[in-house]
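Weekly puzzle thread! Below is a chain. First person to post its structure in token form gets bragging rights.
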Amino acid sequence: MIPVFRPSMGDEEVRAVERVLRSGWIGLGPKTREFEKRFAEYTGAECAVALNSCTAALHLALKVMDVEGGEVITTPMSFISTNHAILYNDAVPVFADIEEDTLNIRIDEIERLITRNTKAILLVHYGGHACDMDPILEIAHSKGIKVIEDAAHACGGEYKKKKVGSIGDATCFSFHAVKNLAMGDGGMITLHDQDAAERIRRLYWLGISRGTWDRSKDKAYRWEYDVDEIGYKYHLNDILAAIGIVQLEKLDRKNARRREIVGKYNEAFKEVSWLKTPVEKDYATSANHNYVVKVLDGRRDSLIEHLAANDISAGVHYIPNHLYDMYKPFYRKLPVTESVWRQLVTLPIFPDLTESEQDYVIDKVKDFEGK
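Winning reply:
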């Protein structure tokens, strides 16, 4: 079976983990700090804080932006973590409709939905394609509203030649097993606000003022610390950070490989009348995490079944969050979202997808036309 996603790992990651295991320090420590430093340098952010998931990153990013009791304008076209994080912070998700081509949040919707209770805009760079950030930031900052980017798909992506992670007030990344930078699990927040970063460091370790590694760097272990607010057990560890450091070194090369696969798919499918391929706007360099096509003839589910019968996995990203039962209190009609999601199919894309596997996927998609 050709999967939709597969992590790309090698001997370098194995050796990096072995070194950490033999070091005697496998928890939050020097490798995590090194990973944070390298990631901040890569993205161009002032600081980066590593966590155990993007969900944790979203939770804490919203928390330090003080959204509690307010409204957060958000997209329904995302994994459920995005909008759960709003509820974790006792805020109200206000769902905006999306662009039909990029599947990103619509700027005119953001403007229309802002109220005096709006505390933040939480956007998603769907599939790795950046939202049009300049007008969003202009709207938000003119009204004192924070902009938080969910970049779970967008590691290594760019907006107007700037790396995603250096643009908004906070950017949250995922290092889940199938992401472009894959560690099995993990997340990161990048920011330009050092005070906010330091607060996140306290919050990710139960509110403790000085973590174990920081209290262990002197000759004598310093056991004293204070706790000044309720925190969470959200920090990363050095085993995963060691994988992350290696994956970061490979990221641009692996993303270039994804771009090659997208180019081949787009060329192969350009004459298929019932299928629409993804777009890339001139302001974006996509990280190409997903390859999502639109099936225009109402046979989306039949295509998925056809591919499965030929040992090809295909998925749907995503069921719009505002349609889930638990989000009914926040439902508002979103015409584009509710129409376009029924067309979406995610085809296999990952750096180690072979040429023959790509050809096979292309052939089987084209085979479906007459069925």
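Puzzle host: Confirmed. Bonus trivia for everyone else. Residues 11-96+103-249 form a domain with the Aspartate Aminotransferase; domain 2 fold (CATH 3.40.640.10).
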